[in-house]
Amino acid sequence: MRLALVHPLPPDAAACPYRLLDEQDHEIVWVNDFLDAQHMRQLSPRSLRAYSYDLLHFARWFQNQHQTLAAITESTLLDYVRHQLNQQPRPTPQTINHRLTVIRCLYRFHHGQEIPAGHSHFQRLYTTRCPVGYGRPHRTLAFGLRLKQPRRVVQPLSAEQVAKFWASFRTFRDLAVVGLMLLDGLRSCEILGLQLEDLKLVDALLHVLGKGNKQRTLPLTSEILEVLQSYVRLERPLTNSPYLFVSLKGRRRGQPVTPAGLRSLFRHHRLRSQVPSANPHRFRHTFGADMVRAGISLPALQHLMGHSQIHTTMLYVELAPQDVWREYARAVANRARLISPRMP
């Protein structure tokens, strides 16, 4: 069984470009009908791709179970999780949980109800409250298997690492890409999706289309504004492409920068700068952590970073170990000064 990408899009614009096919190139209808529905819901291409590969993994395992989709239960998912935990390399808990979520969505789409328990019963009791600590806690009972995920800790780059990575660039285009991640918190997909008309140099503003087709407007600092002006006026080739960032040389000169091109760019400069942890999302984390340290309000940071839930923004309040040690050293120094005996 394999996953085939239909390109260009099939005649039916409502059909998902990702199609799951068997060995005889016949469509796996119960998967593709679900993907078509998600495509009509206007899910992003990245989400459709993730759904497709999650279902490909499940379908490869499920074809050997000799049962129909209607017959699966939570016990079936337990067997599927056991199969994944025995694989090498073992998928992360986040990956397994995402696959389980997609399968449950698939089942609801076809049968209009949750997957029955079967012989396995999983119940989890959550205590939830407002993310900023206000209000009375609420208890919620959730059903279904879910693996415990390690607690996420934001690990921003240090000022020295940023400076070393920044110094390795030689073009205004590349400086603008990194600058927008570092000074405005843009995601790599948002960088690649920027169009020339989104850049308002006169007003020092940038219009960004984020996840879920949500638009936000961001201010541009004088430093990044100067770099963007130099790129647009001095470096950007004459091209009909509407995208802001295009290739500067080679056969793709004037064509939009691709995800693979952006990955190659960062890979090259990680080696050149000797900063192995530098990647697009780490720069976004650095922006969020720097803003929190500077005292920005969480709702303002939520808007700047394009988070749909403030719970995600709250991750930047969690101090990294280096921050904890720095705060500890400062507190110890203050305490030592306060309790030291006064000289007569």
Layout of strands and helices, then pairs:
Blueprint: E1 2-5, E2 18-21, H1 29-40, H2 45-62, H3 74-85, H4 93-111, E3 123-128, E4 138-143, H5 159-167, H6 172-184, H7 188-193, E5 199-200, E6 205-209, E7 215-219, H8 222-235, H9 259-273, H10 280-293, H11 298-305, H12 310-314, H13 321-339
Antiparallel strand pairs: 1-2, 3-4, 5-6, 6-7
Helix pairs in contact: 1-2, 2-4, 5-9, 6-8, 6-10
List keywords for this structure.
mainly alpha, DNA polymerase, domain 1, hpI Integrase, Chain A, two-stranded antiparallel sheet, 7 strands, 48% helix
User: What is the first-to-last residue Cα distance?
Assistant: 85 Å
Individual helix count = 13
Instruction: Categorize the overall geometry.
Output: globular
* CATH level-4 homologous superfamily of the largest domain: Intergrase catalytic core
What value does the Rg take, in angstroms? 25 Å
Main sheet makeup: 3 strands, antiparallel
**Uncertain runs:** none
Which percent range fits the helix content? 40-55%
Mean pLDDT score: 84
**How many distinct domains?**
2
Q: Can you identify the CATH class of the largest domain? A: Mainly Alpha
The main sheet orders its strands as: 5-6-7
Q: What class do helices, strands and sheet pairing give?
A: mainly alpha
**The CATH architecture of the largest domain:** Orthogonal Bundle
The amount of beta strand, in percent, is 5-15%
